[in-house]
Amino acid sequence: MRAEPLIRMRIRVEQDVFVARQLGREVAREVGLEAQDQTRLATAVSEVGRLLLTAGRDTDVAFVALASGVPTLQVEMAHQMPGDADRLKAQLTQVRRLVDTMEVTHGEPGTVVRMSRRLPMGAPALSDGRMDEIRNRLSSHVPGTPFDELSVQNQQLIVALNEVRAQRDDLARLNAELEETNRGVMALYHQLSDELEETNRGVVALYAELDEKSVQLRAASEAKSRFLANVSHELRAPVTAIIGLGRLLTDESSDDLTEEQRRQVELIRGSASDLLTLVNDLLDLAKAEAGRVEPHWSEVDLKAVFGQLRGTLRPLATRPEVEFVVEEPQVPTLRSDEVLLAQVLRNLLTNAIKFTAEGSVRLSVVPAGDDVRFAVADTGAGIPPELHERIFEEFYQVPGSKALSGKGTGLGLPYARRLVGILGGALHVSSAPGQGSTFTVSLPVNP
């Protein structure tokens, strides 16, 4: 249903263009448009009326208030004689900027121009009663003379100029503040640039120093590895000779020794055996550090490896208080180096047996995504969390720990971690005092 106009008028002569402008401003004021929007709408109505008047014939003007949806004031200007709508559209390009929407249609009755302006959020509601009041007030509106309209336009122009001047002053002030801010930003930028350049020089110098220290550390590590390898190799022969001589002295075919002599010889043999173990561990560690341990990849039957470990290590677990368990592997095969893998697991199991007074020592393996996870768990005294990484240092032993069988050298765990690294995996420990320890070896299924 079409809304009833607030007021209608007809433009016949140039005088009516001034009246249409006055009426447009008055209607805009009544419905609640702001002062600037009143001027914009009045200007748009007068300019469209002028263009249509030059085309000849009369123009009907209707002001309609639309209350449904977004409240809007619509102006419909109909020209009774058909004309060139495209030419009119081109002439109205500047007028379009004064309103929210503008539509020019051309049909059988003639050319129709529809313009609209949305009412602000704070405008009074366009109820039926209020629109009737607006119609009554507009019906008693008395048009002013062209001189009156010119006076109003001049006042509006003065207000607009004052607003432009105020905006220009504000813009100049903002430009000055922005310029001052830019100077501060540039000063800060130059200061930060200088500081960054100084920092970069320090970082470059630090990197150079680190590179130099790294070269020195690498050279020292290589020298240590060579020293350990050479010394270990040279010590093996005399230590082996001492063990052999001790065995000859206690042999039944040799001359009888007194009880004290036999005891002393056994002490010598035991010390020599411990020394030989240390020498062998040093030699293995030196080889691993020097990169002389190359893995030989093959499909490893874990069931066979676990069976071998079960058979060779069970004689070491002689205390009835400790249960030695090698579980059946949940992973049948693994691509790895069988000798190095067995050496790592044997090392971890031997350590667990040495330091477990009661409970159990258990070996297991389970799949873990793209990895295989070996676990050696014991119920020993446990290791404090702050020492979890230190136990992998060479010659380090947990303070207060005491091996229940044999003697520890502090080289087994560092050697085991290096072998696991060579196999492409990682060795970690999870332990707490009084809760035992679990050493976990994670190896890739396809290294």
Structure description:
- The protein has 447 residues and is an alpha+beta fold.
- It has three domains: 7-144, Heat Shock Protein 90 (2-Layer Sandwich), CATH 3.30.565; 145-292, Helix Hairpins; 298-444, Histidine kinase-like ATPase, C-terminal domain (Heat Shock Protein 90).
- It contains nine helices and twelve strands.
- It has helices at 14-31, 35-54, 85-91, 128-139, 146-249, 259-289, 302-313, 338-354, 412-422; strands at residues 7-11, 59-66, 72-79, 101-106, 111-118, 298-301, 322-326, 333-336, 359-368, 371-378, 426-431, 437-444.
- The strands form three sheets. It has a five-stranded antiparallel sheet with strand order 1-2-3-5-4. Strands 7-9-10-12-11 form a five-stranded mixed sheet.
- A hairpin with a 2-residue loop joins strand 9 (359-368) and strand 10.
- Helix 5 (146-249) packs antiparallel against helix 6, helix 6 (259-289) runs parallel beside helix 9 and helix 8 (338-354) runs antiparallel to helix 9 (412-422).
- It is rod-shaped, with a radius of gyration of 50 Å.
